[in-house]
Amino acid sequence: MEREADPHDLAPTASTAAEQLLTRCLAAGENAYPGAAYDTAIAHLYVGTVLRMAGAAEEALVPLAEARRRLRQLADAGDKSAEQAVGISFADTGDCL
């Protein structure tokens, strides 16, 4: 018998780790250290990716959109790593639709 997947059952360790990372990043703030803004954007991406992989596609769209917004700001300021990560956020979003 198949049961409906709970978004947090598929990878509880990954889900918990991603959520804790995002919480720590947000608490520290974008100016806490060089690269903190990028790390915060990537933490949003991780949360969205874990949710998507767990089958919670609709729930994943919110952190993926926030990751994309933050990464786009960094990319517009010249951050090449952020520019590449924007593409990942689009791909994950597409996988949710």
Note down, in words, how this protein is organized.
This protein has 97 residues and is mainly alpha-helical. Helix content is 74%, strand content 0%. The chain contains 4 helices and no strands. α2 runs antiparallel to α3 and α3 packs antiparallel against α4. The protein starts with 11 loop residues before the first helix and ends with a helix. The mean pLDDT is 90.
Task: Itemize the secondary structure elements and their pairings.
Elements lengths: L11 H17 L7 H18 L3 H20 L3 H17 L1
Helix pairs in contact: 1-2, 2-3, 2-4, 3-4
Summarize the structure.
The protein is mainly alpha-helical.
Largest sheet: none
General form? flat
Percent of residues in helices comes to over 70%
Structural class: mainly alpha
- Proportion of strand residues: under 5%
Given as residue ranges, the uncertain stretches (5+ residues, pLDDT < 50) are none
